[in-house]
Amino acid sequence: MMCGGNAFLNLFTLYNEDTPERRKYYLDELFNPLTPPPGWAAEKTKATLIFNDTLSVASNSWIYKSSGTQEGVLSTSVFFSPSTSLEIKSSGSPSSSASYWYKIISSDGINQSDKLVLKVNIKLQNVEGSGAYIALYGDTDNKTIFFSLMQGSLQGITGTSDFTEYSATVPYFIATVKNLRLALFLDGKTTGTVYFDDVTLTKYE
What we know:
mainly beta; Jelly Rolls; 2 domains; elongated
């Protein structure tokens, strides 16, 4: 039961090979319910902003991966804060794969058990189908250690709406992760246009 569920999506798994301190606590607590809660279980309130990108033509270093039926451009006409946003627009028939913008940043300075929160402002125009979403990956040597979706749900957002802030949370950072991958998706089976702006990543200790 402790290791059941989908480890890739961080569902139900209480510990794995990268979190021996969690394994020790949960096994101790299993046999002794009076085991004191560990320090890493305390609420994390000390916030440190580790990434902040308001996006601009000069500094844009995001990479776009296309399904072939959607187009990704740097929009200079629609944005939450001046002067650009990352746009993905459906430009053909639906595809089985998603299109997305992504950026890789180092995990230096993030410690085991820190909480991470990725926040992005998203605007939708006539988005129909499986929708748009954001995700935060933890990678080591081309292996994904953890993966967190926007609002913790597999369901993307659809419709027409002005810029609204959405988030993806990793409640327990694993220190074996070398790189963090921030990803902004439009599902391949979706029509319409989505804009992403003001991307931040904050750690909580």
